[in-house]
Amino acid sequence: MWVAPDADTALLTLHRMSRYIPHFIALSASSPYVQGQDTAFDSARLNSVFAFPLSGRAPLTLTWDEFTVYFDKMTHTGVVKSMKDFYWDIRPKPEYGTIEIRVFDTPLTVERAAALAGYVQSLAAWFMQDQPFMPAEDDYLVYTYNRFQACRFGLDAVYVDPATGSHMPLREHILMTMGLVERHAASVGASASIHQLRTSVERADNDARWLREKQGEEHLLAEVIRQAAQRFRGGVTHLQQP
Fold it and tell me: 5-62 pLDDT, tens per residue?
């Protein structure tokens, strides 16, 4: 969640953040198992969410007046009664003046959750201060592809830049973005968050990988779950020394 200074800025930030949805998915992925089976996805949870009506991306409305027109049309259909009926990956929260990023899996440590929040804050500060690009409908041409790649392969995914059409490893795009927001991270007190996540990306290390490695050692998911809960309660950092 990120607090916006005004409603129009919130919508611009929402659509700028959409280019970085694969970052958020891959960095937080921690749901490779469903009912005891490895799904081959780093984030299988989002497959279930994507089945919901009105899931996925928000419509490209760049002012609050435009969004209000869309919302009124949707409520007129009877399909939507409140903002809670939208299951978008990012949605406005007007009663709090925030936007919600809803693609994160639950991190296995509080430290990693805080680092992810710091990354979001750094991106938002970059968007507000530098306004690096104007959102456009073409940004969404590769949205579902990039989203799938991050869910399936995590930090080993391929990222397609919607502005240039270039393909690159998602890890490379995350590291490049972290370099761009480094100054803004310092301004919001998130430099340590960026450092922690950068180290994780360089090692291709997320919580899905940790869970699979533990299952490979234990061959018993109940024990893996016990250790994961112990890590969360104990505040053990996600980043292990080599």
Answer: 688 999 999 999 999 999 999 999 999 999 999 999 999 999 988 888 899 999 999 9
**242 in any annotated domain:** no
Answer yes or no: is 239 within a domain: no
CA–CA distance from 200 to each of 15, 104, 192 (Å)? 26, 16, 12
- Which domain, by its residues, includes 26? 2-234
CATH code at 46? 3.30.590.20
- Which residue pairs, CB below 8 angstroms and at least 24 apart, start in 16-20? 16/123, 16/127, 16/132, 16/133, 16/135, 17/90, 17/99, 17/101, 17/120, 17/123, 17/124, 17/127, 18/57, 18/58, 18/89, 18/90, 18/135, 18/139, 18/140, 18/143, 19/139, 19/162, 20/123, 20/177
Separation between Cα atoms, residue 212 and residue 234, nearest integer Å: 20
166 pLDDT above the threshold of 90: yes
Q: Considering the domain boundaries, does residue 72 fall inside one?
A: yes
> How many structural domains are present in the chain?
1
Q: How buried is residue 79: exposed, middle or buried, by Cβ count under 10 Å (0-12/13-18/19+)?
A: exposed
204-239 pLDDT, tens digit per residue, is 999 999 999 999 999 999 999 999 999 888 754 444
Model pTM greater than 0.90? yes
Q: Report strand pairing: 2-3 vs 98-101.
A: antiparallel
